[in-house]
């Protein structure tokens, strides 16, 4: 065993360390994108895996926990880029979701609330049953309510999926993100209140929600004006829209608001108030696409194998119960909401992935200042690693079995919809 370890160090680790030391950060950054795209395409062609899985695996392979080509110091400045890319994704998701659907079909809102509640209760109850601290159980459960907007949207684009199951999964995913962010912020504020005993701490969730909502409203109004002002939703309109979205994300970060929450609400409100037919390119075109690829690679890089091993036992139980909760509720309320039970199961499966949003929540700065942060991280990162590998595959299978994928459409037209 020792000889194998020495051989691995000599042939793999040492050359990579030397290369990482020699190359400057900009070069490694470019190689990072190249490696992500190449590995993703190889995973798709050879293993028939979604490209998302390839991006995540590439990040995990070249990150600090494995080959170490990219160090923690390298990826620290990229946190802002990753958060902006996530904001772009959730805005795009929100812009595809019709909130009026909830009014026309109240069972969808019932499904969303019940699924989030049971997921929270099941994960929290499991952790309490195995002896976890109450605070740890609550925070992990709040984070596990969220699904992965980035994985769901990316796979839907890749498979050109459109239909009842796909649209319901996107609606539930968007609502889950809102629930999870607000729940986590509230729990963290309560935990900080026990430490600092100050009222401003308890008001932080209200400030976060109201501030993010206000920023989302402003963003939606500005974008609606942009699309009305331009003669058609062409390249210039989308470039300007992308700039406004990135500016909104920057304002959210500078003011201590939630970038994903503000941009998700902005997308939802834009879809709700606008009636124009708009053709959205995936991720707002090539520039946004590069950011999204980088987002997935960075998510893989940030997986800490030591944290994974520390929380692997609890993580397996969390993944199993979380998946069961989402699938069972979606299946149980499928028929009342106008969907077959089989498609309800597939909607639940499509909600199982966890990715960049989960990682952003577990790295939430106020949470990191609490004593429970290490225990929360070990469990969530363990669950994230498991679901990162299996989740995109399960999501792709679910959309295919739903019969809502096609490669026969004219490229680009699959993204047209009424705003």
Keywords:
419 residues; 2 strands; disordered C terminus; 20 helices; globular; mainly alpha; single chain; Na+/H+ antiporter like fold; two-stranded antiparallel ribbon; 1% strand
Helix content: over 70%
Distance between the termini: 61 Å
How large is the count of helical segments? 20
The helix-and-strand class reads mainly alpha
Biggest beta-sheet profile: 2 strands, antiparallel
Describe the fold and architecture.
The structure is a single chain. By secondary structure, the protein is an all-alpha fold. It has a single domain, classed as Na+/H+ antiporter like fold (Up-down Bundle). It is built from 20 helices and 2 strands. It has a two-stranded antiparallel ribbon. Helix 2 (25-47) crosses helix 3 (51-62). Mean pLDDT is 82; it is low at 7-20 and 407-419.
